[in-house]
Structures are given as structure tokens and as C-alpha cells.
Fold each of these.
Amino acid sequence: MAIVTNHKLETLGGEPAQLADYEGKVLLVVNTASKCGLTPQYEELQALYEKYKDQGLVVLGFPSNQFGAQEPGSSDEIEGFCKVNYGVSFPLFAKTDVNGANAHPLFRQLTAAAPFQGFDDSDKGRRFASMFSPEQLESDDVKWNFTKFLIARDGSIVGRFEPSVQPLDIAPAIEKLL
């Protein structure tokens, strides 16, 4: 299933954008947060972006305050935090709901096309799994900050990587698409 590229977006700076702006690129779409135990993943996301951007990778960050209210800041605060602490230069977008009635259509499409397959068997993955009820684990909703969706140049959704997967561990899958 190819992703619909006419999704309207808003940059963190308030400018209009759309997913079509990135057609022909390999995309790593990530819901992010600045006050999460996983926030250091920004460093690896930036490293992936720097390493592969000239080959066509774009990391797209979507701050979300839906998980433990871990993204409470304004757009300016989020941008400053990301640049100062992690040198983030990949595109960041306005705060976005990724689940529920107000979920952005992009995330509705991503979760439908790349359903939740469970957490990995690492210690971190097992800790994540223990945070959720069986009913929550049956849902395809985004479970937490730093869920990552990989999209090929043709718009096909290649994979979903849960928060327990470190961004650099996705590098082999990215390289296959470049």
C-alpha cells in the first residue's frame, strides 16, 4: 500500500507543507517528545539523517504530547530544545495527535498500513510490553513516543519500528531502500 502524499502538514515554524514535498525520498516518520526517557533517540535520528540525506533519506519528526504529556512546550521551545541539545536539522512539524479522534490522517494511514506487531524481545521491549493491557496491545495505535515508520521512495510503507528499537538499528533497512 502506497502512502497518500496529499496530506497537509504544518512545519514547526507554522508554514504549510505537504507530504508530497518529499516524494521520491525514503522517509522515516517519527512521533517525538522532548521530555521522554527516549528523547536521546534524537541523536541517532540526526545521525541517520546526516549519513543518508544526500542519498535521499529524510527524517520527519512529529512532536506529540499524547504520551505522558512529554511534549508540553511551544513550537519555539521544541525547536530550540532539539537544535541546542541534539543538533536536529531534519524537518520537524507542528505538534500532532497520532492516535484517537483527532489523529492526523497521515498517522491513521501509517498505523493501518503497518499494524502493531508487538515489541521486540529486548529488555527494553519487554518493559514496554508490560506497560500496556492486553487490549491496548491488540490495537494498532502508536504505543509511545519514538515509534518509527519507514517509507520507500515509491511511497510504500516498508516497516514500523516500535520505540524500543534504536534508530541506528534501522540503518540496514534504510540502506536497502537507498
Amino acid sequence: MNLNIIDDCLQIEFTFTEQLLAARLHKSWQIPLTNIIQVTTELPPNTWKEIRAPGTAIPGVIKTGTYYTDRGKEFWYVRRKNNFGNVLNIQLANESYQRIVLNNIENNDEWQQKLIPTKS
């Protein structure tokens, strides 16, 4: 997966394998930076009140795809590598998803700083 900022949008590009595992039809995802309301480097807590549809899940190994939780509709692409480290937890407004959770992101602290909304 590759992250870029292009024309004031966060662009997330998925590999073919990542698309298959997450059941994502599109290779890239564009999110206006103005729709990002908070970014952290911690995994949100798992909840038993979640429904995966569609995606892939093997507890303790991989959690990918769309999840409906008590927090709202979320997209996860999290794999056990580096002990589930290097997380980007992106909360959104005015999007179909309320949250995007990614891991194994190189320089996740730098990405957090790039994506944190600035107060005008």
C-alpha cells in the first residue's frame, strides 16, 4: 500500500493482493484532507459488536475490509507484521466511512503530522 498527498487529497493505493483481501474494487482511494478530522497512531479497540461485510478476517493475523461497528462504518487493513505496529487511525467526516485503520505504514508518525487537520 502506498500513501500520497495529491491536490489536497490523501491518496491510498492498494496492491492487487490488498484489493482482493479487503474486497476493494478500486485500486486507489482519494480522500480530501478537509474531510480528515483526527489522526492517531493507535489501533481502536476491537468490539464484539462488529459485522464484516465484505473482507477477510483471521483473528490475530489479518483484519481487512469494511466493518460496521458501534462507532460507524469503518475500513480496516491491518496485518500482523511488526506486532500490529505502525498504525494510522484516520477519522473522517463527510465520507461514507467514519474511520480508516491501516498498519505497517512506514513513518506513521510523520504521516500523522501531515494529515492532522490545521485549525483556521
Amino acid sequence: MTDNPAGTPEQDTAATDQAEAPGGASVATEEATPPSNDPVESVPDFEPLQASSPRSTRNPEFSRFSGVHVKLIAELGRTEMTLQSLLELSEGAVVELNRSITAPVELVAQGVPLGNGEVVVIDDQFAVRIKEIYPN
């Protein structure tokens, strides 16, 4: 208990408070001490990681995605030119690409290089015979 400036005793509320229990009895309860500003370091204990075998991309979990459409691009070649040269293009112009006729074309799925192959013709349409699928 402390004396206030008026001289009447007060109970120190930082330590205990009087609470009224059912039936009118009073019960002393303690308030929690405010946390200190000192940082407390604790390192949690983790289970050691177990090595797992690599998953195959032909996992049955992927079967639910089998109906998703993916854009596959066969990139024949590329070139760079000035804007002036681009504006001067017209019907019948020839643009040389950076790939020889015997070099494989790149296969790109959704912007990700997938593999390469060679250009073939099937029933008057271009096609690509896959020669290599790149590892993940």
C-alpha cells in the first residue's frame, strides 16, 4: 500500500488487484509484469531434413492438369535489324535468320526452352521431329 498525496492509503495496483468472486468474496489476483525491452534470443529445435528422391515430371499428381493448353513455339531463327530496315520491309523482301538450314530449331513452351528438333514436312504442313528434350 502507498499513501497518495491526500494522505489516504491506496493499494498498489501494479502488484495485486481485488476482484469480486461470485457470492461477494474478494479474491486477490496478480497482474502480469510488463515485458522487458531486452531481446531474448531463442533458437527453435528443428528436425533434421531427410533427403528425398527427385520426383519424376510424369507424376500422377500432374494428371489433373492434362487438359490445360500450353503454347509450344518452334523457333526457326532470329535476327536483329534497325528500325529503319524494319520500316523498309515490303512484300517479297527476304530476311536472313541467324540459323543454318541444318541447325535444329528450338522448342519453347510458355517461354521456357523445352528442347530442339528438325523441321519436317507432313502432308504439306511443317512439323518438328524432336531430337532432344532438355533436362530440368
Amino acid sequence: MNKNVFRNLSYGVYIISTLDGERGTGCVANSIMQITSEPATIALSMNHDNFTNSCIAASGKFAVSILSETSASSLIGQFGFQCGKDVDKFDGVGFTVKEGLPVIDDSCGYIVCNVIDTMETSTHTVFLGEVIDGDILGDAPAMTYAYYHNVVKGKSPKNAPTYLPEDKEESGDGGKWVCSVCGYVYDGPTPFEELPDSYKCPVCGQGKDKFCRQE
């Protein structure tokens, strides 16, 4: 089976936020769909290994911040490639509290839900949420997974439903520098060796020392 066919389905890029006790936390997701319009309900697929999964289950609510094509790619690195157990995901990130949950300011819209049902699979929980608030923020187009993959050149976190092992590496034509954390391939005009030591991966925010040369 060619699993790449799944990428012909439509996906967005979202930051899911919830509460760890009284502290906000969250992660990146791309498998969200509207189930009904009245009452408005949203289904969210979340890997069992994501810390956010257990926090949603405990708090009974989650928010969806819809990233736009102009949203800072560092948001994906901050929320997608590190664990909320270890870091404050909202440190340095602009957000507004809606219905008790933090939503990202640098997004094109948000939806807040109360969990009303769940379904378990072998690797993911599907949370069914009833929408209690939502609004449009700005007029930039929503980021699709295709845009993230082809234009931003980002990779899926390993817990994402769309993750494939080759996301971690590009099939090589030699001489590329690849971020060992998120798989971003540097293709800028300046030779990688000449970049300043302060250079950071534009997707996950890791330093130059995290890049490896791929032959």
C-alpha cells in the first residue's frame, strides 16, 4: 500500500491547546474535521503518546488555533517538536484566553470545544468536541498541510497521523544539511558552513549544531 495517497486528503495545520492543571499546554495537529453544524461539533485525532492527549482527557476541553500561511513557522517547532511535560509551550508566545483556554494570537481563527465523547484506536484518541466559541482572526489564508510540507518544507512530528518514516529524511542528492530534530532541509543561498552560529532552524527553532550533513 502506498501511504502517500493519504496526503491527497485535505489537512490543515492547527495548534491544539488545553490545560495541564491551571497551566496552558498544547501541541500541533492536522487531523480535525467538522462533524455536524447544529449543534456544531468537531472531531480531533490525538496520538496516545502526546502529553496533550491526557490533558484533554483530564480537563474535558480543548481549543483549536488555525494557523495561517503567514503564521510564524517557529510556532510549529515550539508546539510540535518538544513535550509539554518538560517545557512551557506558551513561553514567549502571544495568546488570548477564550473560555478558559489559551488561543494563539498569530492564527487566522480559533474554535473552543467541550469534550462530549471519545473513541479509542490502537494509537490515537478521537475526541468529539461540542463548539462553545469560535471566531475569525485576520484575513490570511489558512495553512494547509500541503503548504507546510511543500512551501515551508516542514516535516510531521512522529506522533502525527500523517507522519511517514521518510519525513525524517529527504531522499538524498548529496550535500544537504538536515535538521536532526524536525527534518527541515536547508536550501538557502548561503552555504550552510558560512551561516552564523546564531542560525536557528526556521521550523523547530533548534540551533545550527542540530544540523547534520546528508551525503
